[in-house]
UniProtKB/TrEMBL annotation:
Keyword Flavoprotein attached: yes
UniProt key word Flavoprotein: yes
Gene3D superfamilies: Acyl-CoA dehydrogenase/oxidase, N-terminal domain, Butyryl-CoA Dehydrogenase, subunit A, domain 2, Butyryl-CoA Dehydrogenase, subunit A, domain 3
GO molecular function: acyl-CoA oxidase activity; ATP binding; FAD binding; fatty acid binding
Name of the protein in question: Acyl-coenzyme A oxidase
Biological source species: Caenorhabditis brenneri (Nematode worm)
Domain Acyl-CoA oxidase C-alpha1: 289-450
Length: 667
C-alpha cells in the first residue's frame, strides 16, 4: 500500500515507524475530518509548533510531581505567559483555536479561566440584556474581571427547584438581598470560585413579596477589584482536593444579606420592574442556556479525551513486545493479540462517533440560540434538552469505560502516572456528574420518550419529531448483510421496543393505583435503558451520515472500517433485547460476531495512524508512554529519575523513622 503518512521521523522507534508505513490514508486528511475543517486541523499543528518555541509555556516540571498548591501556581503562571503571547499565537475570535491553545499549554488539571470561558461569558451572552452586555460583557471578554458559574449548593445540585440561596427583592431600595440561610445553601463546587474569580453568575431563588419565582441568574461581584479581598457579606474559599482538576479552585460561597442592584438580575428573558412586578421569560427553562451549551459541546470534548487516552494505549501497544504467536523465536507486539484489539479498537470507533455526533449537537445549539435571540423562538429547546441530556450521559459513561480499558491495555505502566491516563480518566468521568448527574439526565430524556410513545398510542404519531419518528414505524425483519441501514433498522426495533415496554410498564403501575411519581420510580431502570438505546441509535445514525459525506476516498475507506466495527459492536452489545423475542436469530448473532472479528483485522494496519490522526503533540499528550517517538523504556527511566524522591539516596523519613525501627529490632 502506498505510504501516505507525512509524519515519519528519523530516530523514532522502528516498531512505530513500521506501523505508520502501513497506513492506507493521510493522517492530515483524517485530522480535517476529526476537527471539522482543513483550517482548524492545520491551525492546530501551527499553534502547537509556535507554542513549542516559547520555553516559558512548557510545564516547569512534569505535572504529576506537583502538589496542589504548585499545580494552581503553575497553571496561573502559564496563563499569564499565554496572555502576553495570545494575539501572536491565535486568532482570538476563533473558539476552536483558543480551545486547542489552552488544552496544549494548560493540560488537564484546570485553571482560573476555564469556567470564565466555558460558563461565565456564555451565561452573560445567553442571559444578559443589551444594557447588561454594555456594562459587563466587554469587561468579561477582555478579562478585566474573572467570573464563574455558581449554581450547585452543598445540599442540592440536581434538583434546581430546591436551591436555597435566596434573592429577595426590596422595592424601596430597588435591590436584591442575596442570602445563604443554612449550611446546605452554601454554593459548593463551582470551578474557579474558590480563589480566582472576582465575579460570579449566581443562581438563586428569586423572591418578590414573599412569593418564590424559582431559580434565576444574577451577576454578583465577590471580591474587591483592587485587593481581591472578599467583599463584606461574602464568605468564599476552596473546597479541597478532588479526583482531578487539582490545578483548579472549585469553591464554596455564602452570602450574609448581601445587597446587589436590581439591574444585576440577568434580564434578557425575564425581569423585575422597579415596583416588584415580575415579567416572565418566554420559556420556563430559558435560564438554563449555559448548561445546555456545555452539554451540547460535551460529546466532542469527551471524544477527544477518549482519543487522547487511546493515542497513548495504541502507540504503547505497538511498541510493547510480549509473548508469542506462531513463531516461538520472536515475541510479538501486544497490539497483534485479538483481545488487545477488541479492548481498544471499538473505543477508537466510539471516539470518532462521539466527535461526529457532537458536531451535530453544537450546530443544533447554535441554531437554537440564533432562533431565540433573533425572534424569541424557543420551540427547539425541549428537543435539544432531551437529546443533549441523553448524549452527555451515554458519552461520558462510555468514555470513562474506554479510558479505563486503555489504562489496563498498558499493563503495569498504565497504572503509573507517567502514562497520564489516570488524569485523563479523572477529568473525563467528572463529566458523568457535572452538567447534570447521568441518571438524572437519562430520566429527563425518558420523559420525552414516554411522551412520544403516548402520542403514538393516542393516534398522534404525525406530531412526532424526526428523531423519534421510528417509535411509530411498523416492525419488519431485516437482512443485516445489506449494510448500515439494516443495522439502523435493527437498532430502531430494539430501541422502540424498550421505549414501548418501559412506557407500558409505567402506565400499568398507574392503572393499578400508583401515583405518577411512584410509578415513574418503579420503572426508572427500564426508562434509563430506553434512553441509552435511543441515544446510541442517534450516535450510530450520525456516524453513518458523517462517513457518507467524506470525499477523500482513502479516509472514507478507513472510516468505513471503523463504522462497520461500531455497528457490529453496538448491536452485539444490545442483542439480548432482540434475541429474547426472536426478532434476531442466532444466525444473525453469529453473523455480527464474525463481522466484528473481521473488522478488527481490517483496522489493525491502520490502528496507529487512526490515533496519530488526533494529532496530539507530545506536549498536549503529557504521557511518557504515549510519546510520538515511542522510546518508552528510556523515557520512563528518565521520568522516574526525575522524581523528587530520587533527589537524595536516603530520605529523612528513613533516617527519622525506618532506621530507628530497624535498629530497635536488632536489640
Ligand atoms: C466551548 C464549550 C466547551 C465545553 C466543553 C465541555 C467538554 C468537556 C470535555 C472535556 C474537557 C475538560 C474541560 C473541563 C470543562 C469543565 C466544565 C465543567 C462545567 C461544570 C459546570 C456545572 O456543573 S454547572 C451546574 C450544572 N447543574 C446541572 O446540570 C443541574 C442538573 N439539573 C437540571 O438541569 C434540572 O434541574 C433538571 C433538568 C434535572 C430538572 O429540571 P427542573 O426541576 O428545573 O425541571 P422540571 O422537573 O420542573 O421539568 C419541567 C420541564 O422542563 C423540562 N426541562 C428541564 N430542563 C430543561 C432545559 N434545560 N431545557 C428545556 N427543557 C427543560 C423538563 O424536561 C420538563 O419537561 P416536561 O415536558 O414536563 O417533561
Ligand atoms: C468536576 C466538577 C465541576 C463542577 N463544576 C460546577 C460549576 O462550575 N458550577 C456549579 O454550579 N456546579 C458545578 N459542579 C456541580 C455539579 O453540577 C453537580 O455535582 C451535579 O449537577 C450533580 O448534582 P449533585 O451533586 O447534587 O448530585 P445528587 O443529585 O445528589 O446525586 C447523588 C445521587 O442521587 C441520584 N439522584 C438525584 N436525583 C435523582 C432523581 N430525581 N432521580 C433518580 N436519581 C436521582 C443521582 O443519580 C446520584 O446517583 C461540578 C461538579 C464537578 C464534579
Amino acid at each position: 500500500m502506498a505510504f501516505l503518512n507525512k509524519e515519519i521521523r528519523d530516530g523514532d522507534n522502528q516498531d512505530l515507524t513500521e506501523e505508520r508505513r502501513t497506513a492506507t490514508f493521510d493522517t492530515d486528511k483524517m485530522a480535517e475530518v476529526i476537527y471539522g475543517s482543513e483550517k482548524l486541523a492545520r491551525r492546530r499543528r501551527e499553534i502547537s509548533h509556535a507554542v513549542s518555541r516559547i520555553p516559558e509555556l512548557a510545564d516547569s516540571r512534569p505535572l504529576p510531581f506537583l502538589d496542589r498548591f504548585e499545580k494552581v501556581t503553575e497553571g496561573t503562571r502559564k496563563l499569564s505567559v499565554l496572555d502576553r503571547h495570545l494575539a501572536e499565537l491565535i486568532d482570538v475570535n476563533d473558539n476552536g483555536e483558543a480551545l486547542h491553545l489552552y488544552h496544549e499549554v494548560m493540560g488537564m488539571e484546570g485553571h482560573p479561566l476555564a469556567l470564565h470561558e466555558v460558563m461565565f461569558v456564555p451565561a452573560l451572552i445567553g442571559q444578559a440584556s443589551d444594557e447588561q452586555y454594555e456594562k459587563w460583557l466587554g469587561r468579561a471578554k477582555r478579562r478585566e474581571i474573572i467570573g464563574c458559574y455558581a449554581q450547585t449548593e452543598l445540599g442540592h445540585g440536581s434538583n434546581l427547584r430546591k436551591l436555597e440561596t435566596t434573592a429577595t427583592y426590596t422595592p424601596s431600595t430597588q435591590e436584591f438581598i442575596l442570602h445563604t440561610p443554612t449550611i446546605t445553601a452554601l454554593k459548593w463546587w463551582p470551578g474557579a470560585l474558590g480563589k480566582s474569580s472576582n465575579y460570579a453568575v449566581v443562581v438563586a431563588d428569586l423572591i418578590i413579596k414573599d412569593k418564590s419565582y424559582g431559580p434565576h441568574p444574577f451577576i454578583v461581584q465577590l471580591r474587591d477589584e483592587k485587593t481581591h479581598q472578599p467583599l463584606p457579606g461574602i464568605t468564599v474559599g476552596d473546597i479541597g482536593p478532588k479526583m482531578a482538576f487539582n490545578g483548579g479552585d472549585n469553591g464554596y460561597l455564602g452570602f450574609d444579606n448581601f445587597r446587589i442592584p436590581r439591574e444585576n438580575l440577568l434580564n434578557r428573558h425575564s425581569r423585575v420592574e422597579a415596583d416588584g412586578t415580575y415579567v416572565r421569560p418566554p420559556h420556563a427553562k430559558i435560564g438554563h442556556s449555559a448548561m445546555i451549551r456545555v452539554r451540547s459541546h460535551m460529546a466532542t470534548g469527551q471524544g477527544w479525551l477518549l482519543g487522547h487516552a487511546l493515542t497513548i494505549a495504541i502507540r504503547y501497544s505497538a511498541v510493547r513486545i510480549q509473548g508469542f504467536l506462531e513463531d516461538k523465536s520472536h515475541e510479538v507486539k501486544v497490539l497483534d493479540y485479538q483481545t488487545q484489539q477488541h479492548r481498544l479498537f471499538p473505543a477508537i470507533a466510539r471516539a470518532y462517533a462521539f466527535i461526529f455526533c457532537g458536531f451535530e449537537t453544537i450546530r443544533l445549539y447554535d441554531q437554537l440560540i440564533l432562533d431565540m435571540n433573533s425572534n424569541g423562538n424557543t420551540s427547539g429547546m425541549a428537543d435539544l434538552h432531551a437529546l443533549t441530556s441523553g448524549l452527555k450521559s451515554v458519552v461520558t459513561h462510555f468514555v470513562g469505560q474506554g479510558i479505563e480499558q486503555a489504562r489496563m491495555a498498558c499493563g503495569g505502566h498504565g497504572y503509573s502516572m507517567a502514562s497520564y491516563i489516570s488524569e485523563i480518566y479523572g477529568v473525563a468521568i467528572g463529566g458523568c456528574t457535572y452538567e447534570g448527574e447521568n441518571m438524572v439526565m437519562l430520566l429527563q430524556l425518558a420523559r420525552y420518550l414516554v411522551k412520544s410513545v403516548e402520542l403514538v398510542k393516542s393516534g398522534k404519531a404525525n406530531q412526532l419529531g424526526p428523531m423519534v419518528a421510528y417509535l411509530a414505524v411498523a416492525d419488519h425483519k431485516v437482512n443485516l448483510a445489506t449494510g448500515p441501514d439494516s443495522y439502523v433498522k435493527m437498532f430502531q426495533y430494539i430501541s422502540k421496543r424498550q421505549s414501548w415496554k418501559a412506557t407500558e410498564k409505567f402506565l400499568k403501575f398507574m392503572e393499578n393505583g400508583d401515583s405518577r411519581d411512584v410509578a415513574w420510580n418503579k420503572t426508572a431502570v427500564e426508562l434509563t435503558r430506553a434512553s441509552r438505546l435511543h441515544t446510541r441509535l442517534y450516535i450510530m445514525e450520525t456516524f453513518i451520515r458523517r462517513v457518507e459525506s467524506v470525499t477523500d476516498i482513502p479516509v472514507k475507506s478507513a472510516l468505513t472500517d471503523l463504522l462497520n466495527l461500531h455497528l457490529n459492536y453496538e448491536l452485539l452489545d444490545v442483542a439480548s433485547y432482540a434475541l429474547e423475542d426472536g426478532f434476531m436469530s442466532s444466525n444473525q448473532m453469529d453473523f455480527i460476531k464474525n463481522q466484528l472479528y473481521s473488522s478488527l483485522e481490517k483496522i489493525r494496519p491502520n490502528a496507529v495512524s487512526l490515533v496519530d490522526s488526533f494529532q496530539f503533540s507530545d506536549m498536549q499528550l503529557r504521557s511518557v508512554l504515549g510519546r510520538r517517538d515511542g522510546h518508552v523504556y528510556q523515557n520512563l527511566f528518565d521520568w522516574a529519575k526525575s522524581s523528587p524522591l530520587n533527589k537524595t539516596d536516603v530520605l529523612p523519613s528513613v533516617t527519622q523513622y525506618l532506621k530507628p525501627m530497624m535498629e530497635k529490632a536488632k536489640l
